[in-house]
Design a protein that fits this description.
The complex is a heterodimer of chains A (334) and B (474). Chain A contains three helices and 30 strands. Chain A is mostly beta strands. Chain B starts with a helix and ends in an 8-residue tail after the last helix. Classes of the chains: A mainly beta (334), B mainly alpha (474). The interface between A and B is large, with 50 and 30 residues.
């Protein structure tokens, strides 16, 4: 029997495992909005939680093997605190930078979570911020801030000195409507999740528009409020297609490759939680038999990152977990 | 613009919505009463809440599990939705079709139930009752999940007739018998819920209605004199054909939108406050094939609604008290932290949203007020209105300054009352307010010191108004 491939054939993906469970502290997450993954495998997630549970607002540091390392930060306005965390990024020394879209500030922590410094001024002038939503740090240790409310991307030194900006409000090439996530590829190109324009835009390192991917909709290659973007070593582009509850994969030239809708299984911490609650095991079994898909699927995925092993890590926001996929060199039987 | 137009529009916006700022009331009065009523009745003709932005800034609102998140989101919608009547109607049904989080223990289900009221609350009553009867939260709350062909639980059958459609009685007669209750319950056997996921480790799944034919009583039933092999849908159809249901809806709508009626259990023996009004609303029900929107259309265009005698004749319920203050001052528009505490205020005033005390709901009218809740109401209102640091209150003060370079105490008091209503005070209260304002004479705002003084006096006057008996009414 002949086997037919239509289009792109050289990639194969497999769901690997899942990390985390819903918790307000410790071995789990609460409404995580973003993560940064260090070369040593440490994953820093910023948890947004909600107002009546401020104890859930902090950064959790873990590994993708579900080892809990630490947590730091708290809800508030003091040094080292944050209110509406949107994104995190790591510099070359392993320091963590966190953006707060309410306080309009960037906070720097050591890799162990100690507060170092903060910067950011509300406004719309050069170097001022209105709802910073995405962060990325380039190979020269400059930081790009997606300045959502001002519909632009600004570039700063790591201590907050303004360098340059690109973008304006609108829907034309190089314009933005409430942009959110950002990614840099190995060649320094900048990818922006142009959230309310339902597209990803690609720019050169100095902010010249190069290409757009996606239009509004829920079909193949269409996007509904994309908020996270990542690029792997091959240049493939992964987009957290937030309101379509999926991650779509595009080739470097923007052609659609595949999509992940979620294939979660119980994480180690998830099993631990259920293990001490026999009633919940019973209830989950009944529910699983009735609708096995519900627990597997992504629900408002809001960030996608590539770790040092090339694994594709998706923050499954509403289910409070990370779904991890791998890109296989050879096709694997799943 | 005529003062009476402003006063009538303010009345409409208090009743068909959660009030408005004076700027908005003036704009709507200029637009015209009939046009505004049609906008209110046709929410799809108005802008919608921008759901993507709401969830972006409040990501926990999506499939929110916590009850606090659902209450908070609802209060946000009451304040910000351009479709004010839609939210007001959602609250209306929540106060009649009572189910509570204390038993359901799923904030998401409470949010979904309110959304049914939001989306279907002005449609055909039969459709709304069907949505309600297949709502998993309600099925569980009133024990229909425990009602089986071989082991009947009458709770849902009884409440559907007593509290959700016919009412116990009217014109001194009873509307249904105990046998009707049993038959009603039998017809709803097999209406159940599919097993949902538990809260851990990833959060509850939304509950789903599931009909189990093996558990349904298919035998012949006689309900309100009609015999057949009735299922729940037939019961709803027959119930909606009853004069008692038209009466029940008319009295509820009148009580909520026009003027306080006696408490529901008294309706069998106590005739309506305005019999002609009730008859007009009943007629709209029959003429429109059971449309709630048609009843509201008649209501808002009627003389009995526009009558000055019913203005400020209703005690604000706690949600109205809180939300109308925030709308009046323009506070909490858009997206910002701080809504959780505000969204809990109605609870402190005796109205724990999404968690009514029993299936009979809250007692309304003057029963909203006791010594404890009155203190909460006054404190909250005066904290908001007296806080001249708030941008919304600042804009009220700026409008007062716009009355002139030098304004008399009488002008000042009248200006404050216009901005907070326009409110009408009794002679005694008016005398007290003017007497207080007169202590420091005319108001000017030419210098910085005078502006500071003007602002302080405005805050004080707003606080005094918030503490009047008149402010408790809408």
């Amino acid at each position: 029997m002949a086997t037919h491939f239509f289009g792109l054939t050289s990639r194969t993906f497999r769901h690997s495992h899942d990390v985390g469970r819903a918790e307000f502290a410790g071995t789990g997450f609460r409404n995580p909005t973003d993560m940064a993954i260090a070369p040593d495998g440490t994953v820093y997630l910023c948890n947004r939680s909600y107002e009546n549970r401020p104890d859930g607002v902090h950064v959790t540091a873990i590994t993708l093997d579900e080892e809990y390392i630490t947590e730091f930060g708290a809800y508030g306005e003091a040094d080292g605190e944050f209110m509406w965390p949107t994104s995190v990024a790591l510099n070359s020394k392993g320091n963590l930078y966190l953006a707060d879209e309410w306080l309009n500030r960037i906070t720097k922590f050591t890799k162990d979570g100690e507060f170092v410094s903060k910067w950011g001024t509300a406004g719309s002038g050069d170097g001022e911020l209105k709802g910073p939503a995405g962060l990325a740090i380039d190979a020269d240790d400059n930081i790009f801030v997606v300045d959502a409310g001002n519909n632009r991307v600004q570039k700063f030194t790591l201590d907050g000195k303004y360098l340059s900006q690109f973008g304006s409000a609108g829907s034309g090439d190089g314009q933005f409507n409430m942009p959110w996530g950002i990614a840099l590829d190995g060649e320094g190109h900048i990818y922006i999740a142009d959230w309310r324009n339902d597209r990803i835009q690609k720019f050169t390192a100095d902010g010249q528009w190069e290409a757009s991917i996606g239009v509004s909709g829920s079909g193949v290659g269409q996007l509904n409020r994309p908020n996270g973007v990542a690029v792997d070593a091959d240049g493939d582009i992964y987009v957290a297609d937030w309101m379509n509850n999926r991650v779509q994969v595009f080739a470097p030239d923007g052609r659609y490759v595949s999509e992940f809708r979620g294939e979660a299984r119980l994480s180690k911490w998830g099993k631990d939680k259920l293990g001490s609650n026999p009633d919940m095991i019973r209830q989950r079994n009944l529910a699983y038999n009735n609708d096995p898909d519900y627990e597997k699927l992504l629900a408002h995925p809001c960030a996608v990152k590539i770790d040092s092993q090339g694994r594709i890590c998706i923050i499954d926001h509403t289910r409070n977990r990370i779904q991890v996929y791998v890109k296989e060199a050879e096709p694997a039987l799943v | 613009m005529a003062e009476q137009d402003i006063a009538l529009m303010a009345h409409l916006m208090r009743r068909a919505g959660f009030g408005a700022s004076l700027d908005e009331i003036e704009a709507k009065a200029a637009q015209g009463y009939d046009s505004v009523v049609q906008e209110l009745l046709n929410p799809e003709s108005q802008g919608a809440v921008e759901e993507d932005l709401l969830i972006r800034f409040n990501p926990s609102y999506f499939e929110a599990a916590a009850i606090e998140n659902n209450v908070q989101q609802w209060v946000w919608r009451m304040i910000n939705s351009p479709r004010q009547l839609q939210e007001k109607v959602a609250l209306f049904w929540h106060m009649i079709f009572c189910a509570g989080h204390s038993k359901i223990d799923s904030g998401q289900e409470m949010g979904l139930m309110v959304d049914i009221f939001r989306q279907n609350g002005m449609g055909k009553f039969d459709d709304l009752l069907f949505k309600l009867s297949t709502n998993p939260g309600m099925m569980y709350y009133l024990d229909n999940t425990e009602s089986h062909k071989a082991n009947l639980n009458e709770n849902y059958g009884r409440e559907l007739l007593e509290l959700f459609s016919l009412g116990v009685g009217m014109d001194e007669a009873f509307n249904y018998s105990e046998d009707d209750v049993k038959v009603c319950a039998r017809a709803f056997t097999g209406w159940n819920i599919a097993p949902p996921y538990p809260p851990f480790p990833h959060g509850r799944s939304p509950w789903e209605f599931r009909f189990d034919p093996a558990d349904h009583d298919y035998s012949e039933k006689t309900f309100l004199g009609q015999t057949g092999n009735w299922n729940g849908e037939d019961i709803i159809r027959i119930a909606c054909e009853q004069p008692a249901t038209a009466r029940f809806l008319a009295r509820h709508l009148y009580n909520y939108f026009v003027a306080d009626e006696p408490q529901v259990p008294a309706w069998r023996l106590t005739p309506p406050r305005d019999q002609a009004a009730i008859e007009a609303l009943e007629k709209a029900y029959w003429d429109s094939d059971h449309s709630i929107k048609a009843m509201l259309d008649v209501l808002f265009n009627s003389a009995f609604f526009k009558d000055e005698a019913v203005r400020y004749a209703k005690v604000k319920n706690p949600a109205e008290m809180v939300v109308s203050l925030l709308r009046m001052t323009g506070e909490f528009q858009g997206y910002k932290p701080g809504l959780f505490e505000l969204s809990q205020e109605p609870k402190y005033m005796g109205m724990d949203l999404m968690n009514p005390p029993t299936v009979e709901g809250w007692h309304t009218g003057r029963e909203w007020i006791d010594s404890g809740t009155l203190v909460e109401r006054i404190n909250f209102a005066s904290d908001i209105l007296g806080n001249t640091e708030l941008a919304g209150v600042r804009s009220l003060v700026n409008r007062l300054m716009g009355l002139g370079d030098k304004i008399s105490p009488e002008q000042f008091v009248n200006g404050c009352l216009d901005l907070t209503g326009p409110l009408v005070m009794t002679e005694d209260t008016m005398g007290l307010l003017i007497s207080h304002a007169s202590k420091e004479g005319d108001l000017t705002h030419g210098t910085e010191a005078e502006q500071a003084d003007f602002t302080r006096r405005s805050g004080e006057m707003f606080q005094m108004i918030a503490a009047t008996a008149e402010f408790q009414f809408e």
